Amino acid sequence: MASLTGGEWVVAALGAEGVRHVFGIPGVHNLAIYDALLRQSAIRHVLARHEAGAAFMADGYARASGAPGVVLVTTGPGATNVLTPLVESYAGSMPVLVVMSDIASALVGRDLGALHEVPNQIECFRPVTRWAEALTEARSIPAAVHTAFDLLRTGRPGPVALSIPNDFLTARVEAEPGRGGAGRRPPCHPSEIAEAARLLRGAARPLLIAGGGVVAAGAEAELLALARRLDAPVLTSVMGRGAISERDPLWHGVLPNRRATEPVLQAADVILAVGCRFAHRSTQGLLLNLAFAPGQTLIHLDLDPRVIGLLFKPALGIVGDARDGLARLLAALAAGEPTGGWDHRWRAGLRGAASARYTPEAARLLETLREALPDEAIVACDQTGINYWMEWRFPVLAPRTFLYPVGSATLGYGVPAAIGAKLAKPDRPVVAVVGDGGFMYSVGELATAVKYRLPVVFLVMNDDRYGAIKYLQEALFAGRWGEADLANPDFPALAEAFGARGERVTVATLPAALARGLAADGPTVLELPMAVTPPWEL
Question: Most C-beta atoms within 10 A of its C-beta, which of 105, 119, 303, 337?
Fold first, then answer.
């Protein structure tokens, strides 16, 4: 047993779990945690300018590294400011832990008008977390933190929220220190793997669909080996991008890119989906409307049993870790020549299929950006015309290098997510591609990048409007549009006012400007005046 303040217990438990960065903003109720942070050096605190920015940073940190992102916020408005980022982390299955303070334990739930009070604060977080818990005794603080990490390691990743009354944080209590590192993902059942191997062995045109669960499990090598063994093309969800290099001939496309993927989906006879929840946005959205024919066999392997059969009933469901399942499948299939009958030349002709709205100018921008960046560079996207094309047309060559808010499609993600990614991977080049509207959502976090001298490049696509909204208004309402035009600042001048570098570029000058920005000793804002029509087919 050890005697520490509640704030010290929070920091000690985080340290025992291997946490090296936390993101947050101090407030009157959580200062005991900050006092403990100030008296140690193993965990680095990153001071954000808004709690939403802190939580998006934690999400970007988790996506780029695979390690949990940790957010520290104060009571009431400080806590509720992280709800929008948690919507994205929940949808994207990102391991993010939010530690928030609350009003004094004797006041919780009484609605007496205490400073920063949100009655039953924890209830706000239950819909957007895997687990949300309000602590009722100070001595349970270390156990609660360790339980949170155990959940993140054993089940489908996602946000966890802990609410701690401020008097617990200042109180000195005895508790049992935790060792950290507990928890592992469940293996797949051998009989189900044997049945999956039997089905795949008899397939004429097997198809693999890889979701974010493959990346979360670190199963990229197993996925590629299985694709080679079956001679099977691979589709990835947006969250699964990078699970196989998109230069590999067996990679075919991103699932919602209907023009490229629908013919292959229809031609397959046995489909193995791994770590893919078939999210409605991607499979029943503005482009692809996925359905499996009666003659097709769907095998669905996922860590979360609730996902299997939610949209599509499989012939075989397998619950377990993606890496374990793919490795067992490889072993069950054993060495041998593929028996599939895919016409790969036909497939190759489909890979580049696009609508007429994919203009030569948009294609040139994406080609220029890809050629200007190393394969291992991390690109954080926001939501703007070019990002909607990047969702499936920007080549992703390695896992955890393409950060995209596909779950919430929220503005304001790209800037802080890029900052979190750079802190997670300081040796990697990091670029954020954002629109003028999305950049202004979180422009305050440019000050965070300046404070920590992070050489992140923020590429701002400026069309002086919410361009995608204008497109939708005109398409849906007989050409009428309004309330989508913006009054923007001079972006390079704004960058310089923050203490960052700023340039206005063209597509032709972009590579040199990117090189300068990535070699700088702080952030750079590049403004590219350009309008891009989104790909949606209404």
Answer: 303
In this structure, the dihedral spanned by the alpha carbons of residues 145, 150, 156 and 157, taken in order and rounded to 10 degrees, is: 40
Residue position matching structure tokens 């979180």 = 442
Q: Which residue has the higher pLDDT, 166 or 184?
A: 166
Tokens 């040139």 sit on residue: 364
> Residues 30, 35, 37, 38: is their CA dihedral positive or negative?
positive
Q: How far is CA 397 from CA 217, 243, 375, 459, 526, in A?
A: 18, 8, 6, 20, 24
Within 18-67, strands assigned E span 21-24, 44-47
Instruction: Please check whether residue 285 is in contact with residue 391, taking contact to mean a CB–CB distance below 8 angstroms.
Output: no
Between the alpha carbon of residue 36 and those of residues 48, 168, 334, the distances in Å are 18, 14, 54
Superfamily designation of domain 360-529: Thiamin diphosphate (ThDP)-binding fold, Pyr/PP domains (3.40.50.970)
Cα–Cα distance between 468 and 473 in angstroms, integer?
A: 9
3-state DSSP assignment of residue 372: helix
pLDDT of 285 over the 80 cut? no
For residue 410, pLDDT beyond 90: yes
Q: Would the CATH topology of 190-351 be identical to that of 360-529?
A: yes
Between the CA of residue 400 and those of 136, 372, 526, what are the distances in Å? 38, 19, 24
- CATH number for the region 2-175 comes to 3.40.50.970
Whose tokens are 């400026």? That residue is 462
List the structure tokens of 445: 């976090």
Separation CA 458–CA 468 (nearest Å):
20
Q: How far apart are CA 311 and CA 474, in angstroms?
A: 32
Could you tell me how far CA 414 lies from the centroid of its own chain?
A: 11
Residue 538: how many CB atoms within 10 A of its CB?
Answer: 7
Least confident interval from 118-122, 281-285, 347-351, 456-460: 281-285
Percentage above 70 pLDDT, the chain: 100
DSSP strand pairing (44-47 vs 402-403): unpaired
Distances (CA, A) of 37 to 56, 69, 123, 175, 219: 21, 16, 28, 19, 35
What's the rounded mean pLDDT across residues 402-406?
A: 96
Instruction: Decide if 413 contacts 88 (C-beta within 8 A).
Output: yes
Q: Taking the domains of the chain in order of start, what are their residue ranges? A: 2-175, 190-351, 360-529
Would you list the DSSP string of 270-283? Answer: EEEEES----HHHH
End-to-end CA distance of the chain: 63
Cα separation, 246 vs 19, whole angstroms: 32
Q: Does the pTM of the predicted model rise above 0.90? A: yes
Closest CA to 102 of 70, 129, 79: 79
8 Å CB contact between 250 and 234 = yes
- Residue whose entry in the numeric block shows the structure tokens 């795949």: 200
Size of the chain, expressed as the number of residues it contains: 538
Distance, in Å, from the CA atom of 516 to the CA atom of 192, rounded to the nearest integer, reads: 53
